[in-house]
Design goal:
Length: 402
Amino acid sequence: MKVPIKIPEVLAPAGSLDKLKVAVLYGANAVYVGGQKFGLRTAAENFTQDELREGMSFAHERGAKVYVVLNSFLHDKDLAELPDFVRFLDEIGTDAVIVSDLGVVQAVREHSSIQIHISTQASALNIQSALLWKKAGASRIVLGREVSVKEAGKIRREADIEIEMFIHGSMCMAYSGHCVISNFTQGRDSNRGGCAHSCRFEYSLEGLDTQEKKKAYFMSSKDLEGLRVLPAFIEEGIDSLKIEGRMKSHLYAGTMSKVYSEALKFYAGHGHFLSDDLFKWEEELGKVSHRAYTQASLVEKAGAESIFNERENSTQDEWQMVGPVIDASPKAGIVIEVRNAFNQGDELEILPFSGDVIEVCAHEIMDLTMKAVVRTRPSTLVRIPYVEGVQSMYLVRQRSKV
Ligand code: SF4
């Protein structure tokens, strides 16, 4: 008898309510979001309590889960407001909170029955650490990015706890949560949500021979991309595959959710990948802004090849979002809320929730009064001729004009 394959969940970042909806509609099984406090992305839009409530309903109605990050390292004065927030999260049906501080673990246990996931900030890398967190009440560990998929499988089996791993996105050059470069260079505390990505900057190296000075991105890591490692994640029983990037765009949230969920569904049905599909998915992953990709330590320990040190390695074939489709029918045409301007005659791509990209040419653009438009403006609604299969909430993109 064929043993069913256990497929990991695709866990997407949602920096705003809009992005949550995009990620869920494009196939994410779960999203992680931040409230106004206690998370590590102070520069992300973050959710108000009303937005958290709405996001929770939107996701749950579509069978997706919502995890709320509470992974900042807190001082006693910060803890005072936590119980109320935790009770609120419990009341709205939060599926889990992502935590790195033992004091926060304790507060969540005392004031709610919400599942506790241990953040990658805690740098759990081994079985003993996983067992201890389990004893402290955790139901899942988000392992440090330094752990390989094989090691993660062993931790999962021996500690008998759910395991989440990063599969895609920007990387820290330091062990996550153990970096203070931003604190010293920018006065911004990376462990309390203020990372200024100082490791991505260009630095100059002064050797013993002071004549020799080299400028480069010594500490900047390439971006993680684990598409071809999916079979190993499945084989090792990893429960959740996390995509980094709450600060990234709607197009990023949609593309990543779509590619990884489609790839996993294909694998579940066939037990293998086809090269043509892998190339197609890789092409899609290449259409979002990124540094050169690396598998980092997913298979073998990351080495010098994981350092992104040449500016020209950035993606050249960059695409940007034109805007979401607001309405689509033979009568209304395709109504787009323009976020980035496009011109009459431009070639556009519409990203369906599943299946192949729909290519359209904006040979005719009208505003809502049916007046012809030659160049659109951001924050306006325009319509282009209808194309079969397009529906509301699909994202429209265009190759960036460099
Ligand atoms: S500066 Fe770089 S290594 Fe340090 S926390 Fe920020 S992203 Fe990570």
